[in-house]
TrEMBL record:
Domain of life of the source: Eukaryota
Compartmental location: Cytoplasm
Ranges for domain CSD2: 107-182
A GO term from the CC aspect: P-body
Entry protein name: DI3L2 exonuclease
Keywords: Cytoplasm, Exonuclease, Hydrolase, Magnesium, Metal-binding, Nuclease, RNA-binding
Predominant location: cytoplasm
InterPro entries: Dis3_CSD2, NA-bd_OB-fold, RNR_Ribonuclease
Organism: Pomatorhinus ruficollis (streak-breasted scimitar babbler)
This protein's encoding gene: Dis3l2_0
Amino acid sequence: PDVIIEAQFDDNDAEHGQDHLQDTLTDGVKKLSLDTGEKGKAAGVTGVHRTKQDDGPKVNDPRLLPDEFLQRTAKVVYILEKKHSRAATGFIKLLADRNSELFKRCAMFSPVDHRVPRVYVPLADCPPDFVTKPEAYSQMLFICRIVDWKEDSNFASGQLCKSLGQAGEIEPESEGILTEYGVDFSDFSPEVLECLPQNLPWVISPAELDKRRDLR
């Protein structure tokens, strides 16, 4: 690595001339030793001063730098699988600018999960009296699904799927969490129910109890 050496030039150096200054620098270079095992860390010696900008090694070729001085970069080239359900639980409210053209067409959906962006949803998806009585739906949970997010827009575009109910109640909150994570909580199909015992009430037979470990 290149080494930058600074020397102080004062009145004493002026008296002895440039030859004395050159000898001082030469002696400083001879005394300076670099330990290659420490990745370019130099020990301070008398007459040699290192500035804060000299903490890292000065190497023109990045391939010669140690790993701790490198910042790895990458670029996304392909989306292999979309893991997020694009569904979110949140609240709807009117847009702030009532004079805008967008106010007549869209409402703002604010997700409970702040990692999900805010979403423009069509007023047609909202309840019929939402525009006239928005305060009645201030604590009503809705499910919104993101369908698009244009590059020139600060907010995504989506559609309201359904109304869950009042925020804070167990059933709406639970359904919202299951929907966000893509969990299928619909009723079992008839084919699945046919696998269960049909003669009710069903009990474990004594023969089964004898060969099973009772963990009740």
